[in-house]
Amino acid sequence: MNAATWDPSEIPHRPTVRLAIALNVLLTLWYFQWLLNFDNASNPYLYAALLLAECFNLLQGATFWWTVWSDRHHGPAGSWIGPKPTVDIFIPVYNEPLDIVAPTVAAATRLRGADVRVHLLDDGGSEAMAGLAKRMGVNYIHRTGRNGAKAGNINNALGITDSPFVAVFDCDHVPDERFLEATMGAFADEKVAFVQTPQYYGNKADSPIAAAAAAQQELFFGVIARGKASKGSMFCCGTNVVFRRDALEEVNGFPEDSLTEDFALSIELHERGWKSEYVSEVLATGLGPEDMSSYVSQQRRWAQGCLGGFPRVLRSTLPWRQRIQYFSSSIYFLSGWTVMLYMTMPVLRLLFGIQPIGSVGTDDFILHFGPYFAASLTTVAVASGGAFTFSAFALSSATFGVHVRSLGRVIFRRRGRFVVTPKHGESGRQFRPVGFTMIYGSALIVAMLVGLVRDPSPSTFNNVAFAGVHVVVLSCGAWPALAGRRQQRRPALHAVETETVAA
Amino acid sequence: MSLVDQLRLPAEQEGRGEDDASSSDSLIAERAGSPDAPGLVGVGNLAWAVVPAGAVGLGAVALQTNLGRGALSGAVAAAAVGLFGLRVRQHSDAQPDASREGGTGQAGRHHWQSAPRLIGCGLAAGGVTGLGTLVTSGSSTAVGAVGQLILGWVTLALLFDMNADGESLSSTRARRVRLVDQAVLATAIVAIAAIATRSIERPAAEFMLAVPVGLALYFVSLAIWPSALSEPARAGRAITSGVLAATLAGIGVSTASVTVALLVVLFFGSIGALALVRLLLVRSASTEFGIGATAANRLLTAGGVLTLLSAGAGGVGALGLAGFSALVVLERQRRRPIVVQIRQLDTSERTARRVVTGLTGLAVTLRLLAFRGLWLDEATSAHQARLPFVQMLRLIYSQDNHPPLSQILLWVDVRVVGDSEFALRLPEVIIGSLLIPMLYITGKELFDRRAGLYAAAIGTVAPLAVWYGQEARMYAQFMLLALVIVYAQARILKGASARYWVLFTACCVALVYTQYFSVLHVGATMLVFLLAIAARRRRRNGPGIGALVKPLALSIGVQLLLYVPLIPFALHQAVHNQQTGNGFSASTLSAGSAVVPAPGIYGLLTNIQWAIWGYQPTQLTTRLVALWPIGLLILLLLLGQPRRNANRSLLIIAGLPVLTIFGASFIAAKSRSLAEVRYVAGAVPLLFLLLAAGVTTVVSSRRIQHVVIGGLLLSMVAALLMQETSTDNPRLYQYREAVRRVQEQALPGDQLIYAPHYMDYVLEYYSPGISVAPLEDGVPTKPTGKVFLLEAASFSDSDAAGSDMATAIQKLENEGMKLEARYNYAQVSVWELS
Question: Which of B176, B118, B127, B182 lies closest to B149 in space, CA to CA?
């Protein structure tokens, strides 16, 4: 396993992080006391929208600071005391390629620290998958129907199996043989319902999208997950996780009415007083989305699931610290709206001459906004130990449409479909996933040209620069889809293990 | 023998000569004392006597006279006599050694140099020498002696290299002998020509005594105590001889304390310089020539020498200097054994060096293409540099607000090259062009070769670097020294040898003597050292901090000691300027201050824009500054980039002075004149390095790197064109054009009245040929001829001057004069009344 490129257990220098947060808080206050001067408003509607967006950012920032402030090491749990436990290993599959599934099954059979019973939960009913299970000597479970998608599949398996612990791995996440040794000790506390471990994408080098998605994951499973765990609020992320069967049975298994069954399950468990633990060590290597379509599909599911779970968070009887953590995780998927608003503003200014703030000098604006912006980026950079990259930011910005659309679907109660994230990247150009982005990018470019032709004043130049920044960010984020170039897959352990299967 | 074998053989021989200085020196010391090398005994030691004595003597002449051509010719003649005698003795004694070494395998070896290349060298040497002489013959400056000495030296170097057939040049000693040969003969030839055509001033005659006296004392000491002395003992004896000779010469010339003090400084300075030269000589390489090429080359170069001799002493001018630069490059290429290149440099490095050489040539060209006349500060510098040395220092001490080093350089330049616009700007052209290879070296040292190349390319066309590379002020020097300091520090932090500590210390001192604000740069480098020490303390298994702390303490000590003379100098300037209203809180005279925006964020952004795209018309500047959101993009691009010590160091060294000066201006200062990029010019090349490194770090695709850098360079070239050609450039002052217009229109008896009053140095330089007076003295009553009124704009007191000028015009019109015409130039207006 090649986890050397990222070590989620590495804690950034805490005084530096806290200093960055303190500075960020001060500079945010400095910015907001200036922003909230209503005399500066030019167009009241835009000004209100800007205030709303900035307040949303502040909310996100504040929860991030709070989470990060408690960052601490979450190493492997202590050893399991007593006779070896029995653990059911669930590997849900649905028409994934054999060469992806086989290494995961093979690795699961080699897990140490417990008596493992590996079950291949095939919702696709594939003969080949059954053959694979037979060859690998693992249990093959297939149900009739596909109710509840992945959650239903697992729940079905829960009814068939009986080990006191259940580990779940997505079929493209190959566990390290130390996985159970590093996690099972946490169940010494009888209130612990599940132990989550990081998701790590081993195909970062294969695709720029996978690399950017990995950077996003590294931010979450690094500092954010550690911070959440420190506040007892780490939620289940669907894979690389071990559950106590009693806990699952108490909540009747995974909720089948959610697109993010793991998120909803975690709320249920925490509400019932169960605890969660997090081991910040890479114990499984997975595959990230390699093309834009896969990435968008994955993000759409997460966004719709988490936004759909937002009312559940509000209704919950969780303690405030947990509720705030779930709240912040849910509202992250609204951030696409702020991106869209920020991109709209220069367009409106260049085409129609309306802007949220007027009669403010450059000095005044930069003096307040510049330090706030720089401090915010610095805090993220320092707290994440440099894990979060520009590519990750650009990819997230370029897919802002996913958030916009997801909110719409949640509001209008359009039921989403559980779509398994494709495991092999598609070759060729993919315009559809970035169609919204391209429309916005084009609008920005048109606005820049029109603005420059109409009124080449310094103010126009300033808005052109803002628009240009957005164009660059969108272009960088969407470029892998537009270029359509696909990297060669690394001969990673997946490929190597496939040979074993073929043999 | 294969080609590779042919190449390897000299390489192995050269390997000995390319060893470090200490081993070479020990070789010299060992052989100098051996009985079979009598001719080389004391060669180096004699130089220890001759060079300081010569420096002191020359300094004495320079300090006490305006150093006319005769004086310099005399000095050169004296040096020629001394060195020539030395070489005659040395040559006769050295024969056995040469023949001995010639028998060790060098003779008969094939030469790597091709005949066409040699002929090309000869053609270049002969052509440049001849052309340079033709172009500049008849010049009245003193440059001829030195310039033609250089040309002659280069030419003779070719001749001597050709004559090296059969003679071993593999040893360090032999190479040094060869260089002395060249120096002696070139000096002699030029000096004889100078003496034959010019008289010798008395101080020069005094100086002539220094070298022979030094030599005589040393020889006498050897005659009295001929036993084999140790190397230090010989050196001590030679230095004593030099001191005695210099003292005699100094006493003969002057007894003034300042002069004597400066002579002492010169003496020790020359010893230091000699040590450096020795080091360089020891490390220099050599080669031999083929017979056919030798003949052709001899003919061509001899023609050049004859042309040189026939023209006598005179200025060499631009062509000669440019040619000399080209020859130096050729010579360097030619002298460096090709095998060493093969062994030490990979293809990329060779290509990179060629690119940097080309960029440097382009940089020289761009900096020479200065179409503008001198502005106020340059005219002030020209005025000071034309004064005798001591008088100039007194003037700087009493009226200026800058340290003296760049002015001293300009003073020498005026004596050697002249005081034309070209001559005044030449030192900064050279220094500004040296920035390019230095950017490459530093970029390569801190990051990688690619970053170094990008930085060099940016520095070549960066409008601000070009602008100050064209200006007869200290700012190009400020940039270069600040960069060298960063380079030396980077080497030191990588555990380089003591020589980088010497370089670092010397450049820090030179920097502070160049610009007072550079104290901030030096302070920032100290902070970087402290951080490095702290990091080493944390990292216990790293290199010992003692290796850093002790030399750092020594460096700081030496620096503080050397700053001591500057402190009273600076204090006097500060107090005087404050008392006369020209200090840091000045609200009146601030050259160019009207261009500078008020201290603040906008002002800072304007300065950043200047640093990257140079001085642009105000309308363009405001638009470029409005592009500041690009900075947000840059911040975003840095997300996730690995933290590098080099980045941190550069940010500290560049950022601390900028923030301090701009912060102080923003918070406390009354004057906007401080918040200006030229006062933090040392940060500019560091910004180029950061830009280059940023591109190589953030952009992984080489093709996109080229696109980004290409786009940046393209924008800079466009900005450079605009800067150099637009009359709306707020930094352009067309005093020269205005005065020329007056000259064209004026008749004897006409008058020129000017405002503000500090334009006097400009009018002294660009003399209009009629009577001039400041407006402060009042307008002429009942003038008999025309009256020209000249008003300079773009100063913080320009409004007052403009108002006074309007009143003056009104008064003259009341006197019955009629406004004939008004001429407008960049930052200057002329009214013609008759």
Answer: B182
